[in-house]
Structure formats: C-alpha cells, structure tokens
Amino acid sequence: MSSESNQDASGVNHDLSPRQHDQPPSRWQDSEATFLSPNLANRGIDICTLYNSNFQDNEAYHNDKYQQSSNTLGFFNLGISENKLCNDLVAHRLCQSGMSYVEDIQLQYSSPRGHPFLRDAVARFLTTFCRAPQCLSLENVVVLNGCSAIFSALAMVLCDPGDCFLVPTPFFSGFIFGAKLCANVELMPIHLETEITDEDTLPFQLTVGKLEQALLEAKTQCKKVKGLLLPNPQNATGHVYSQESLKEFLEFAKRNDLHVVVDEVYMLSVFDDSVQFHSVLSLERLPDPQKTYVIWSISKDFGLGLGALYTPNEDVAFAVSPFSYLHSISGIVQYHLRCLLRDRDWIDRIYLPAVHSRLRTAHAYVITTLRELEVVHNFKIFFHSRSCGLYLWINLKNLLEPCTFEEELVLYRRFLDHKLILSRGQSYLLKEPGWFRLCFAENHQQLTGEKEAAGLIRAPRPLARTTLPAPGTRGGASRGAARP
C-alpha cells in the first residue's frame, strides 16, 4: 500500500481530533490509498484499489473471526448483512431425505440460464411472494451465483463504459464494485435528506422531483444516464416503497427512456406485520415492462448463493445468460435450491415464521442495548429503523467534532481497534457524516451471550475513551438527524 501518514488518497489529513486526543493513532491503514504492485497491469491495480476500498476490513475479519468457544478476542462483524439467525433450520432441511438425490443431469453443464427445474421453482416462488397478478414464466428467469453477478451482468449489457445509473443514497457499496469492476459504469447518487422537511414527510424520502433534479444534474455534467437502480426494501434504511411511489418512479423512467433495475433481495425480511412490501411484479401494469428488471437472491433469507433476474425482455435475458460461463451454479446446488423453493409447507409453516420471530427478537435486543448505551454515556444515538431488513441505520454524529467524514473515519477505525466492524455512511455515498449501518441478524448466542465477548458490548470501549461534550454544548443531540 502507498499512502502518506494520516492522509487519504485525496490528501485529506486524518490527525486525531480534539474528541480523540487521548487515544493512540489507529493501526489501520487507509482503505482509500492506492494499491501498487510491479506485477500488475494498470487494470489490475485499479481492481485491487477498488476491492481494497470496499472490502479490506472483511479480509481481517475472515482471518480472525470471533468464536464464542475458541476466539473471544476475534473480530465481531456487524458490518456484513448476513442472516445467521436460522442457519440451524436451513442445515436441518438440507440434511433431510430427498436432498441427496443425484441424477446425471445434475453432474453436467446446465442451460446458460440455469436448469429449467430451478428456473421454474424461482418463477413459482416469485409469483407467490411477489403477489404477481399472473403466473410468472420460467422463460423470463436467468439464474447466476448471486445478485452481484446479476447486477454486474446487467450493467455490462445495458450500458457502455462511462455510462451512468441513478441510485438513491444511502445505497449498498457493493453496487459500486459490481458496476465498476467489469462494466466501468458509474453510479450517480440521488442525495436524500436525513430529516423531515417541508418537502419530505419521512427521512430519506425519494420523490419524482429528486429523480428529475438528479437527472438534470447528471446531464449538466455531460453524463449519459442509462437507468435507475432502485433497491426495495432499501439498503441501508429499510424503507419500503408504496405501490403508488413505484408507479411514479417507473413512469418517470419511461418518460426519460431509462432502464429500471429493482433489487428486491430483502423482500422476505419484513418482520413487522404493519409494514407491507410491494414488489414491482405485483403491479397490474408496468409502464415499460421491456425496460424493467427485477433481481432477487435467496442469500439473505436462506444463506445460499443464488441470484435471479426476471425480465420479459428476451434480448436482455439472452445477453445476460453467457455470464453463467463465469458465474454458474453447480447442478447439485441447483437441485438443492429447487427443493427448498418448492417446499412451501416448510417455508410457510416453519421457516418464515421463525425468521421473522428471530429478527424481531434480535432487532429489539439491539435497540434496547443502544438505549442502554445512551444512558451510560449520556449522549443520544439517533437511528432509522423500518422493521425491515437485517440492519439498523444509526447516527453517531454526536461523537464527531468537527462533524466531517474525516472524523467519521477516525471513529470507524476506533471500532476496528476494538475488533468491531460496522459499515460507515461515506461508503454508502451519504452526504452527511456520522451514519453507520449496524447489522443485527447475528447468531443469537453471540448477540445475547457473554457480555464481555458480544460485539455490541465492545462498542462502549472506544466511545468511553472519547471526550463527550457537556449537555447543551456543541456535539449534543444532533439537529437534522432522522427521528428514531
């Protein structure tokens, strides 16, 4: 790695702030520094730099994971959105009779779009859980080994290098990696407000007006906008769009001749009965079905690698299919996935009730713990929670003085020093410093077990060593943060 001491790649200084004056310098390198190697071409260096800026800390985590029985001093990762709450149920189901069945077709190459038996299971599954008004066809399904592969393939076939997709912030940083790695497609952020205003009835509210403004700004920068990326539910706020909003966004895209990629990977992670998820596939009529694409993955709900694209556009489905040469799923795994998706009795009666119940329990535990931290350390933690997804969107700007992204990075590194990983807001292209994504769908024993080992209890250590302001002084309860 090549980087100046206490500076990032853009030359921004990272010396300790007045709020961090009593702490030693962090031992963590700058994740935004340029990767250098005499063995790599410029493209290889760019790939390594891009990877390093997004996933460097996960490498450290995988080399030193927390284990309750053998490594209580290892990294506790609340930055990766994985649902570990029902691993026991999935493992038990995969070991039941019928899963071990093997025939010749499973040991051979499948169709580039995936085995028909799996695509049929995906189409039936989406018809049910997306509440589609008509049965969805397996001919419109393409399966690869993950949603990142699906999105990367779509970026490749829908855009030329340098083209852009609009995407509302905050958004999953992996989208940047998927768009840039092979396709060299840019994501243009649609910046949303973090507070309620005269125009916004909710924090992080997307409107057609903001879409139009973002499109105009992109054009003034001579950017060629080819589409809109729309996560629903949203990662990281958990916001779920109404049918009316979805229709308005799709009409906007049609007026401006834009593709729309709707990421519905968290559609089964709505654990509050008062929150209603609406799939774009539930609409009676799509304004432009040939330019509307739904991507979904089984990974957030069942922990297995599958990314599915649903599109009636035969040209796009045909163009995405060759990517199976790089991102295929083995025949045996496809058969296992088919068995899971077709077992509606197990899904409806056992699995989904357990998932939602455990998500509610973990969600409540994390909120209670955050409230306890507020009392112990006498400062307010604002958070945005929509009872959907595997995460909380929390605001720690009270700990930043001045409130800058440089200070956000300093605090982030303090968590790393204490073997706790969170995702920071700047990596989600948020315009306001201080926000972090905290994933709570962690192994229940690790969240609620031995308190000295649990990741949430590590959080106070760097906080306690940070000089907190007196009530009423600068750095007190933040203005402009999302309502809890």
TrEMBL record:
Q: Which GO terms describe its biological process?
A: amino acid metabolic process
* Pfam families cross-referenced by the UniProt entry: Aminotran_1_2
Top-rank taxon, per record: Eukaryota
Keywords in alphabetical order, please: Pyridoxal phosphate
Location of the Aminotransferase class I/classII large domain: 107-442
Question: Which Gene3D superfamilies does UniProt cross-reference here?
Answer: Aspartate Aminotransferase, domain 1, Type I PLP-dependent aspartate aminotransferase-like (Major domain)
Q: Which InterPro entries match?
A: Aminotransferase_I/II_large, Ethylene_sulfur-biosynth, PyrdxlP-dep_Trfase, PyrdxlP-dep_Trfase_major, PyrdxlP-dep_Trfase_small
One GO MF annotation is: transaminase activity
Ranges of biased composition (kind: Polar residues):
1-10
Please indicate if the UniProt record lists Signal as a keyword. Answer: no
Where are the annotated segments for Disordered? 1-31, 464-484
Q: Which PANTHER family match?
A: BIFUNCTIONAL ASPARTATE AMINOTRANSFERASE AND GLUTAMATE/ASPARTATE-PREPHENATE AMINOTRANSFERASE-RELATED, INACTIVE 1-AMINOCYCLOPROPANE-1-CARBOXYLATE SYNTHASE-LIKE PROTEIN 2-RELATED
Record-given protein name: Probable inactive 1-aminocyclopropane-1-carboxylate synthase-like protein 2
